[in-house]
Specification:
By secondary structure, the protein is mainly alpha-helical. The chain is built from three helices and no strands.
Length: 75
């Protein structure tokens, strides 16, 4: 099972992983929207950084789950 298949399986079968992935994708859209604002204010830059950190948090959670699942499928 390759990485993409593992992610798809986790998304379909693991409600917590699905929640993390959906939140990660939502944050990605929010960040992209905020980055289009001109002029960029300091407060806006801080908010974007906060959202990026939160997005990274979810990415880390998902990556750990992906690695665990891949180990199970190769063992």
């Amino acid at each position: 099972m390759n990485r993409e298949e593992v992610i798809k399986k986790l998304y379909e079968e693991d409600p917590q992983f699905k929640e993390w992935k959906d939140k990660h994708d939502e944050l990605d859209k929010d960040i992209a929207k905020l980055e289009k604002h001109h002029p960029m204010t300091h407060d806006l830059e801080l908010e974007i950084e906060r959202l990026k950190k939160e997005k990274l948090y979810y990415k880390d959670l998902m990556e750990r789950r992906i690695q665990e699942a891949m180990k199970k499928h190769t063992a």
